Amino acid sequence: MGCILLMMACSNDPEESELFNNQTRQNTNRADTVSTDTTKKMVIPAVPDETGAAPYILLYSIDDEDTVVVNPGESQTAQAPVELRLFANIGNPDNYKCHCEWRIWSTKDNGNENSPLVTRFEENTTYTLNKSGGYNAKLYLAFIEGDDTIAYESEPINIVISESKLTCPDGFTPNNDSINDTYRITAQSIVKLDAKFFNRWGEKLHSVNLETAKHVEGEPNKLVLWDGKKGGKVVDNGVYYLYLEALGSDGVKYKIKKAINVLKGFREGTENAGGGGGDS
Predict the structure, then answer these.
(1) Taking the CB of residue 30, how many other CB atoms lie within 10 A of it?
(2) CA 60 to CA 139: how far, in whole Å?
(3) Which residues does residue 141 pair with via DSSP β-bridges, in sequence order?
(4) Higher-confidence position of 62 and 222
(5) Above pLDDT 70, what percent of the chain?
(6) Which of 129, 211, 226, 273, CA to CA, is 20 to 30 A from 172?
(7) Does residue 61 have a pLDDT over 60?
(8) Euclidean distance between CA atoms 275 and 280, whole angstroms
(9) Phi, psi torsion values for 164, nearest 5 degrees
């Protein structure tokens, strides 16, 4: 499900979203031996110099139109599933060879960078978080020229994945008045979902999953499951049945079976639902 969360060290370049596809330089070699006599810590400037970096992470989640910028050393809450797109944004030294390492670890049970969930040796890479809890991501670099090594560690970027929540309303009014026209549920940090709608005779009218459900613009916790139509026509007023199974980022399993009311003749501020009671 999905908000874009952009976690970024120091860059406002409008073309940075293209870096992942256009400027990925993979380097799977790692500096396994670093001389303690020649290793120097350095402060990375705002713009990468000859031996610098400005790392950042893009987190793609529920609403692909929403973007949040988070700097290393800061924390941001997001919903699962979240795809992390990690960019080292390294400078181009003439003589230094750069070795890159990303570590992502859970902060649960005092977890730390020495016991990561994943370690990657590419400058630009991806990882998806599906479980609620706290996570840190950190970049390690070693610039090497002969016996000279410059080591760099970024500050951790903290990501908190919220616990799941799922609620379903009792009905909706598909009458094109732009108020409650679709059947919407509240779905927070839901990583799997399958829903079906039936009439009173057991005929399946509509089915939807997490990939095909539509997100409500400006409301990342809202999912549209049904527009009340079968074969392009709005069904008659009456009682219909929802069967829904879902899985939350925290491992909670949802199984919901409930009756829902379709009242297409209802108008906000009136007491008359209007229409008959037959099912399509």
Answers:
(1) 13
(2) 19
(3) 100, 152
(4) 222
(5) 71
(6) 211
(7) yes
(8) 13
(9) -80, 155
**Looking at the structure, do residues 103 and 171 belong to the same domain, yes or no?**
no
The residue ranking higher by pLDDT, 176 or 225, is 225
Both 190 and 68 in a single domain? no
CA-wise closest residue to 31 among 115, 113, 146, 114: 146
Q: Are residues 47 and 63 in the same domain?
A: yes
Q: What is the pLDDT of residue 46?
A: 42
Read off the pLDDT of each residue in 111-121 and give the average, rounded to a whole number.
94
CA atoms within 13 Å, Cβ hemisphere of 116: 14
Within-domain flag for 221: yes
Task: Indicate the length of the chain as a whole number.
Answer: 280
Domain housing 172 = 165-262
99 pLDDT more than 70? yes
Indicate if 184 and 154 belong to the same structural domain.
no
Give the count of alpha carbons within 13 A of 185, CB side only: 28
Q: Which residue from 268, 239, 241 is spatially nearest to 180, judged by alpha carbons?
A: 268
Q: 227-231 — which CB contacts under 8 Å span 24+ positions? A: 227/174, 227/181, 227/182, 227/183, 228/172, 228/174, 228/181, 228/182, 228/183, 228/262, 228/264, 229/174, 230/205, 230/206, 230/280
Total number of domains constituting the chain:
2
Tokens of 270: 């009136």
Q: Are residues 109 and 15 in the same domain?
A: yes
Query: Rounded to an integer, what distance in angstroms lies between the CA atom of residue 99 and that of residue 235?
Result: 61
Strands 133-145 and 97-106: antiparallel
Which amino acid is located at 125 in the chain?
T
For the chain, the maximum distance between any two Cα atoms, rounded to a whole number of angstroms, is 85
Which structure tokens are listed for 155?
Answer: 């500050």
* pLDDT for position 266: 59
